[in-house]
Here is the input.
Amino acid sequence: MTDEHIRLQLVDIGRRLYDKAMVAANDGNLSYRMADDCIITTPSGVCKGFLLPEQMVVVDIDGAIRSNGKPSTELPMHLFLYRHRPDVRAVVHAHPLYSTGFATAGLSLEKCVSAEIITTLGSIPLARYGTPSTPELAESLRPHVHTCDAFLLANHGVVTVGKDLDDAYFKLERVEHYAHIIFVARQLGGEKSLARSAVAKLLDLRGAYGQTGLNPGCASCEEDCIGASCLNYDSKYDPASEDRLRPLVQRIAARVRDAAT
Ligand SMILES: [Zn+2]
Here is the structure.
C-alpha cells in the first residue's frame, strides 16, 4: 500500500461514512498505520464527505506531527488502539444513528443473538464514558481492547479496528446494521438469545472465518448463553461496584432481619 493509495482510500471511506449518514458535519475520524509505524490520519475540522488526499496528516506512533496540518482531535484514541493491538492497521470512528443510540442509552450489543455477529465480530461492548478528545476516551477502551474489534463509546459513538481500512469500515457498517436489527427486534417483543449449544457450534465455525481470538458474546445471560465461559466475563465483573453496593445490601438485610423479629 503506497502513501497515495491510502490517502485515496481515506477519502473514499470518508465519503461513504458521510453518504450513509454515519457522521454529521465534521464528525468522525479515520487512520491507517503504515509499515514504518507512521500513522496517516484525517485532519481536524473537515467534513468526511469532502476530504482531499493532500489534507491527510502524518504522525508517528507517539503523535508527533510529521507533515503539515492538524490531525483529528481523537488521535489519542487511535494511537492507544495501535499501541495495544500490533495486529491493527486501521481505525474508523463515527457516530452512526442506531449504534450511537444504543451507546447513548447505555446499552451494549453483547448478547449472543446473531449467528453473523458471533462468527465475525464477536462481542460489541459498551466502553464507559470518556470525554471526547482527551486520553480519558482512550482509557475507556482498556478493558475491551484485546478481546474486541468494535466498541460502543458511551454517550458518543462507535470505533472499530481492522487489518486494513476496508476491514475496519465494514466492521463499522456491520455494527450499525446489527444495532438497527436489534432496535427492530425490540419493537417486535425483543431479541431472543441463542441456546448455549447453538453458540458453541458457531464458535467452532469461527476458526474457518479466522476470528478465533475475539470475545464470543455477553457475560450477562446465564441460561441461554455461554455465561461464565465468555472471555469477557472477568472484565465485566466489577468488584468496585460490588463494594459500593455492599453497605446498601447490608442495610436492607438488617431491615429484613428487624422486620422478622
Ligand atoms: Zn466522535
